[in-house]
Each structure stands twice: as structure tokens, then as C-alpha cells.
């Protein structure tokens, strides 16, 4: 294997064999994902989850708990989402920390997410929502070493950043699913039924989703999760982040 993760050499071996699989994962995390890069006898969409232990490698039938942090009280700067990896729905928790910067160029550090995607969400929050983060150091990470590249995590990232900036937690039991456009609009994503089924199994009670698929999401949730459809990122921030005073609510704030 090369450093980029592809089969080394002139690819002769890769052409001869029927199946090519590889393990991938964060070197600092015990979790490993087994992916099929080539499979003449089936789909390459399936993903296997394994964990490194002292005796070797063990299968993880339900890896969902590895990607979520369980705390008794909601913590500012965290928001959960459900991503689709192959055919598997996996939870991901995005954590953000915002701190005043003493530098002319504030720090931007990311782990588990694309740095350019984080920069875009910071700009949209500043321009479309009025959440000023340009003068602060911003740190973004995912729990458990998860790699989140799907645009559906944009909304969770934005809520985590807004929550960290306001130092107020996201509402208890809530997750966010949706892609954020440069205009501040929240765009629909695929497989919303699969995502919400996994969210309900994990105990989430509220979900913020794009308004365009809100009806389909409510039908898929079948009453197990309260679904709120939002048109813009500003609506999502108002609905998802706890108000400044307990019980306080602005007149135009969306409700579940």
C-alpha cells in the first residue's frame, strides 16, 4: 500500500484478484473500518467495523456508542448528526471550542472534518446569521476519531459553533441533519428515513432537518422523534441552541 492508501506498483495484482479490502482509521483510535475497494461478487457499499484489542481484532456489531460522548448534562459546543457510510448509518458528534485569540491571524484547528468545510461554515455563520467568529480561535473535532466528510454534517457543525460562541448548549436530545449552502439555506440530504431510524434507536428525541424533506422525515420518524423543518441556518440556530435565559423565547423562534 502507498501512503495515500492505494495498492502500490503497476496495479497488476489489483487487476488479477477478485476482491480488494483495506482497513482504515485514526492511528490514535482503536476503531478500524474495513472497506471493499473492489468486489466482483457483490457491493462495495458495505462497511465493516472492528476494534483493536490486546488479543487482536474484534468485530464491533454496533459501533454507534464509540462516536458519541455520553454526559449527564448538555455541554456547550457539541451537536450530533447521523451520517451515511456505505449503507450503514453512523452517528457522529461534532465538538467545537471558541476562545478569544491574541494573534493577528486566529487559529483554526480541525480533527475529523475537512478544514475548508469548517472555514465555509464559519463564513456563512458570520455573514448570514451574525455569529462573529473571525477574531476567535476555533477548534473543531469529532468524537472517537470519526472521519466526517458528508455535507449532511454541515448543520450539526454550524450549531456546535454557534453553541460554543454563545456558551449555551444545544437542546437536550437533539441532532441536526442538513447541508448548508453559501446563501445560508439548509439543503435536503438523502436517506433521511435511515438516518432518523438510527437516531431513534440511539435515544434522540428531536431532529432539525431541511424543510424540503420535513414531511418525509416526520413520516419516517413515525412519532418517535419530534421533527422540525428549517429553511435557513438562522432558523436552525434559533431553534437548536438553548435561549440565554431559561424559559425565554423570542416571538419568531421556531418550536418543536
- CATH class assignment of the largest domain: Alpha Beta
Counting DSSP E segments of at least 2 residues, the number of strands comes to 13
Question: What's the number of domains?
Answer: 2
**Distance between the amino and carboxyl termini:** 50 Å
Helical proportion, percent range = 10-25%
Report on the structure:
There is one protein chain. By secondary structure, this protein is of the alpha/beta class. The chain is 23% helix and 29% strand. It has 2 domains: 12-61, no CATH class; 66-240, Ribosomal Protein S5, domain 2 (2-Layer Sandwich). The chain has helices at residues 12-16, 115-129, 154-166, 192-201, 214-221, 233-240; strands at 19-24, 31-39, 47-53, 56-59, 78-85, 88-100, 108-111, 136-142, 174-176, 179-180, 186-187, 206-210, 226-230. Strands 1-2-3-4 form a 4-stranded antiparallel sheet, with no helix packed on it. Strands 5-6-8-7 form a 4-stranded mixed sheet. The termini are far apart. The mean pLDDT is 87.
Notable features of this structure?
2 domains, four-stranded antiparallel β-sheet, four-stranded mixed β-sheet, globular, 256 residues, Ribosomal Protein S5, domain 2, alpha/beta, 13 strands
Question: What is the topological layout?
Answer:
Elements: H1 12-16, E1 19-24, E2 31-39, E3 47-53, E4 56-59, E5 78-85, E6 88-100, E7 108-111, H2 115-129, E8 136-142, H3 154-166, E9 174-176, E10 179-180, E11 186-187, H4 192-201, E12 206-210, H5 214-221, E13 226-230, H6 233-240
Parallel strand pairs: 7-8, 9-12, 12-13
Antiparallel strand pairs: 1-2, 2-3, 3-4, 5-6, 6-8, 10-11
Amino acid at each position: 500500500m502507498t501512503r495515500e492508501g492505494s495498492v502500490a506498483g503497476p496495479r497488476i495484482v489489483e487487476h488479477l484478484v477478485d476482491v480488494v479490502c483495506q482497513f482504515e482509521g485514526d492511528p490514535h483510535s482503536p476503531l478500524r473500518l474495513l472497506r471493499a475497494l473492489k468486489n466482483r461478487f457483490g457491493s462495495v457499499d458495505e462497511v465493516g467495523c472492528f476494534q483493536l484489542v490486546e488479543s487482536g481484532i474484534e468485530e464491533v456489531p454496533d459501533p454507534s456508542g464509540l462516536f458519541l460522548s455520553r454526559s449527564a448534562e448538555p455541554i456547550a459546543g457539541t451537536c450530533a448528526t447521523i451520517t451515511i457510510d456505505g449503507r450503514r448509518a453512523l452517528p457522529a458528534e461534532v465538538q467545537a471550542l471558541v476562545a478569544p485569540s491574541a494573534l493577528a491571524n486566529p487559529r483554526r484547528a480541525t480533527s475529523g472534518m475537512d478544514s475548508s468545510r469548517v472555514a465555509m461554515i464559519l463564513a456563512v455563520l458570520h455573514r448570514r446569521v451574525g455569529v462573529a467568529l473571525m477574531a476567535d480561535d476555533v477548534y473543531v473535532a469529532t468524537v472517537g476519531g470519526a472521519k466526517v466528510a458528508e455535507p449532511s454534517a454541515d448543520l450539526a457543525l454550524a450549531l456546535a459553533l454557534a453553541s460554543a460562541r454563545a456558551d449555551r448548549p444545544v437542546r437536550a436530545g437533539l441532532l441536526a441533519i442538513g447541508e448548508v449552502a453559501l446563501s445560508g439555506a439548509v439543503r435536503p440530504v438523502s436517506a433521511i428515513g435511515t438516518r432518523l431510524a438510527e437516531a431513534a434507536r440511539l435515544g434522540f428525541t428531536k431532529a432539525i432537518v431541511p424543510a424540503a424533506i420535513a414531511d418525509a422525515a416526520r413520516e419516517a420518524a413515525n412519532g418517535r422523534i419530534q421533527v422540525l423543518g428549517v429553511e435557513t441556518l438562522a432558523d436552525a440556530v434559533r431553534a437548536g441552541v438553548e435561549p440565554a435565559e431559561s424559559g425565554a423565547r423570542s416571538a419568531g423562534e421556531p418550536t418543536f
